[in-house]
Amino acid sequence: MPQRWVGRVAALFVATVVAFATVQPATAASISTQPMAVRFAAVNGWEIGTLAYPGDEPRVVLYLSRQTAAGVALATEGTAEFEALSREAGVALAGTRGGELLATTKSLGAGASVSAALGLPWTDGKAWRLTGGPHNNAGKSKHPWSSLDFNGPASGGSYKVRAARGGIVVRPCANLVQIRHGGGWTTSYYHLKTIQVRAGQSIDRGSLLGYTSTKAGCGGSANGPHVHFSVLKNGSHVNLNGLSIGGWTVKEGSGQYYGCLVRNGAKKCAPGGSVYNSGAIGTG
Ligand SMILES: [Zn+2]
Description:
The chain is mostly beta strands. The chain has a domain at 8-109. Helix content is 11%, strand content 37%. Strand 17 and strand 18 (260-263) form a beta hairpin. The radius of gyration is 18 Å and the shape is elongated. The structure holds zinc ion (ZN). Residues 132, 135, 147, 149, 228 line the site of zinc ion (ZN).
């Protein structure tokens, strides 16, 4: 796993984002809005990794940096600067692990994946409860409502969370796994314990990621064990309303955490609606 590290990326963010004190693994007592940098790969002056901003729910972006005699160029995913830098980096990082990660971004994977093509994040043939309908990743009421909360049948139980689609694993901060699927799509799984995958690993749909819990090592809190499941495109959270996940279409409610999953006339609503995973893949 890449080490958490205080490097030039972090140093730059001191000046440009917020005061930066530490990138030690976060504990409940130390959670703040300070970004945590995790270097994924470094090749020939290039670096690629994740910056995580702990909060009510963590926000994560990829960064790309290049050291030259003239200084450091740095950009984060979702910006024009990142796209420009990634075109150069794509050549420099070709054939490396960092290049594989970069290839999952929109910049180099544009058009490769129009659909998110997501399954449900648990074992096929099982039903889980929709404990929270579409809501904002950061606990705010404004859109995008990019996240759903799920847990297995027994309230308080801990259950196996699985990859909604294959891709490359990143581990931006504690209790959080993200999978970079390609074409700019990313899925995010928070409140996991006993995580079973490592950063840089290529995994298939259905791979075991970890177990639902109340752990919140990257900020926020959880009342009961669940997975906070989010979808991102090009580094930004997206509205789930209308998206098909595992053959179920997401319908947002009148407020956050309400809403339903709908399939073939069946309507399963939060809190507590029982959602069956047939193994179908979403088309939206
Ligand atoms: Zn949530």
